[in-house]
Each structure stands twice: as structure tokens, then as C-alpha cells.
Amino acid sequence: MQNKKVTFIDWGLLDYQEAWDKQEEIFAKVLAEKHDNRINNTNNPTDNFLIFTEHPHVYTLGKSGHLEYLLLDEDGLKEKEATFYKINRGGDITYHGPGQIVGYPILDLDNFFTDIHLYLRTLEEAIILTLADYGIQAGRYPGYTGVWLDPDNDKARKICAMGVRASRWVTMHGFAFNVNADLAYFGNIVPCGIDDKDVTSMERELGHKVDVEEVKIKLKNHLAELFKMELN
Q1: Model confidence over 164-199: pLDDT tens digits?
Q2: Is 192 tagged catalytic?
Q3: What is the pTM for the complete model shown?
Q4: Which of 61, 162, 192, 229 is catalytic?
Q5: Residue 174 CA: distances (Å) to CA of 156, 177, 197, 229
């Protein structure tokens, strides 16, 4: 039985390690629900979660990433008041910080569709539609995940990075959407291993700070519509 109900949680500003631990706990709970169904030959509904948060300055490196793309040593990280973690998502190195909406959908895709490629494209589409609400035209850059502005020319710049993990069709990690993020922090890495493209934010594109809470509402609504979620 497909369960389209999704619990929405906003953790606010939360330390990356604490958020990762909480994610892992929820992820394990959903996997255990699926395991119990399989072992007991039952069809009880599995839980789904959509989590938004922001993090203090932190750099994270995906399992297939390249450590040399972090351009700071330990002292440099301290100077920037930033932390660094190697984690178990896909993708290379990225930055999280205040003014950035980080989304962690922990979904059992058996409740929606079992297609990771479609899952990523659907997350991207929600960001693209949210940006369109503010008059910002965005799209996809061939060969890369995430959401880009001017993806078809040499001004291509990334506004949302993505990196996910999935086990038995249960997802974790997700996306990092630059709203009012301090873009200077991206200068300390080779973002996602792409050294010839810029990174941008809604603030930079619009010329003023944006109401992050308003963006969250619009983004949440687009995700709900695209996934046919029943958010609560």
C-alpha cells in the first residue's frame, strides 16, 4: 500500500553532525519498517519525511569525492569558522551555511516511484519552479545534477547542488539551495568538482536579500505537488 503522507519538519539552524545523526536515525527507522514488512509478509505503510534546515558553515565531501577540492587546511577551516565532514551521499564537495535551504527528503520511493533519475529530476524541478516564482529562469546543465542559471552558455552558474543516498528505495541527504548564502565560502573549494563554473544565489541574482521563510513555503508546495505528497 502506497503511503503519500509526508511529515514536514523544519529544524532551523542546526549543527551538521547533529542533523546527520538525526537523519540516520529516521532513515534507519524507515528501513526497519520495510524490513519488517518483508520478513512478516505484511504491507504496513512506511513513513516519509521532508526536512528543511540550515547549517553553520560546513564543507561536506561525498563518498566518491576528491579531498583535493577542499582548498583549506585545518587552520584555514578554523579561520573561516567552518567544519568538514566526509559523508555517505553521492556527489563531490559542497558547502552549506546560513542563508541556504538544505532539504533532506527521507522518502520510501516505493510510495511514489522507484526511479532515482526521476527522483533527482523532480527535486530539480521543484527548485526551478520556485525560482520562476521570483522571475528567475533556471534549468539543468547537461551531464550534471542540480539547478543552474544560463545553463546553455558560458555564463552558466549553479544555484542548487544535489547529492543523495538511497537504500532499498529509501532516500536521504538531498539538496542545498542558495537563497542568501555567503558565496565567498564557495571560493575555498572546487564546488562539486567543477572548476570552470560560477556559483550564485537568489540574493545575487535579484540584488537584495530574500525572505527565506517565504521561499521555504513555495518550495514545500512545489515538492508536494510534484510528488503528489500529502504534507502534514
Answers
A1: 999 999 999 999 999 999 999 999 988 766 666 799
A2: yes
A3: 0.94
A4: 192
A5: 22, 10, 21, 17
